Backbone:
């Protein structure tokens, strides 16, 4: 005996009603044949059923519309992004290197220690693990991190990578917004200009949020992960807010080291793709939201290409925050939006043309 409930549940309510009325009007023999054909058609159209795991659903070939456009704004055709992403070339993205800025004083050591603590918590929460020997590549291609040899439960797969990406980007979008809001209020209260810092910090937060929205197109977080993100954001936002009031310099150094870890994470994921350890991503194309935001050219829209773009963004945030951490916090202008007396000399830009992995010193830009 065939039940019409699963079939109706997969359709729009109005369409399901009409279909059921038509099927029930048929003789018993024709009714069974019709149900078989309709069920087979639905299985072909929907070959994968979303998983209800606590962390996230499995990767799907057809991306789910997690955040649909408003339906009650008929006069609005499209809402373009407030900040247009600079164009990256493939050679620029491939040239991104793993780098670490050595701590030079007690403030740097405090920032680095806090990053290590956050990294440990994030690794534990997302089940992330990698071969210890792959942290710092020695010799050869500096753009590649060696792939870990962990197997079984400890091996990284597509699902575990997406869990880590989602958790990482939900945290990474906080510092820029906190720093921009505090500097905005300082500017209003002191009746002084901020010299361009606010815009760059807001753009950084926006960019990190676009990373998160992109990954949400590929995996929908479960209830447990949403709860973890909520708790982490509540603690991290308030802690970073108080820390930025005390020492903006330490906070920017902290974010610089955090972005070093992000570059390392994405480099390892890219290395896993190259090593054939993530076969589901070999031919997986980037979501449309990513294609539009990064202006990804035709033929370069694979999952690996997407990770190359995101890694380049993280490398830029690494450079920006290490540079801001080297400046006078209340007086120096933002070197990434300033015009220079001699533009022919290398200087910071909004793109990755003259990127410096460990940041620019104050003497170099001021």
Residues:
């Amino acid at each position: 005996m065939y039940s019409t409930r699963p079939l109706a549940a997969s359709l729009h309510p109005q369409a399901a009603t009409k279909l059921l009325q038509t099927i029930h009007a048929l003789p018993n023999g024709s009714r069974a044949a019709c149900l078989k054909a309709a069920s087979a058609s639905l299985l072909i159209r929907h070959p994968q059923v979303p998983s209800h795991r606590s962390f996230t659903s499995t990767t799907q070939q057809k991306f789910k519309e997690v955040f649909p456009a408003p339906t009650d704004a008929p006069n609005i055709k499209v809402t373009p992004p407030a900040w247009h992403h600079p164009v990256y070339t493939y050679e620029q993205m491939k040239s991104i290197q793993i780098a670490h800025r050595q701590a030079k004083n007690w403030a740097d050591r405090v920032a680095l220690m806090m990053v290590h603590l956050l990294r440990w918590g994030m690794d534990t929460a997302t089940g992330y693990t990698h071969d210890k020997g792959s942290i710092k590549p020695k010799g050869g291609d500096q753009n590649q991190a060696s792939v870990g040899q962990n197997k079984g439960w400890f091996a990284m797969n597509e699902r575990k990578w997406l869990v880590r990406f989602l958790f990482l980007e939900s945290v990474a979008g906080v510092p820029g917004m906190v720093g921009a809001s505090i500097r905005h209020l300082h500017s209003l209260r002191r009746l002084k200009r901020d010299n361009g810092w606010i815009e760059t910090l807001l753009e950084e937060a926006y960019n990190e949020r676009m990373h998160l929205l992109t990954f949400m197109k590929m995996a929908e977080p479960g209830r447990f992960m949403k709860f973890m993100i909520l708790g982490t954001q509540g603690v991290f936002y308030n802690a970073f807010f108080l820390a930025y009031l005390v020492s903006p310099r330490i906070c920017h150094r902290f974010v610089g080291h955090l972005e070093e870890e992000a570059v390392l994470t994405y480099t390892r994921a890219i290395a896993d793709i190259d090593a054939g350890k993530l076969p589901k991503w070999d031919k997986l194309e980037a979501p449309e939201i990513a294609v539009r935001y990064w202006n990804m050219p035709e033929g370069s829209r694979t999952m690996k290409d997407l990770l190359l773009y995101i890694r380049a963004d993280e490398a830029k945030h690494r450079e920006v925050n290490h540079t801001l951490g080297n400046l006078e916090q209340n007086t120096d202008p933002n070197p990434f939006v300033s015009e220079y007396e001699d533009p022919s000399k290398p200087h910071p830009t909004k793109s990755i043309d003259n990127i410096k992995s460990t940041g620019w010193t104050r003497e170099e830009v001021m």
Remarks:
- Residues 248-274 form the longest helix (27 residues).
- Residues 66 and 217 are 6 Å apart (CA to CA).
- The chain has 13 helices and no strands.
- Confidence is low (pLDDT under 50) at residues 1-10, 35-61, 133-149.
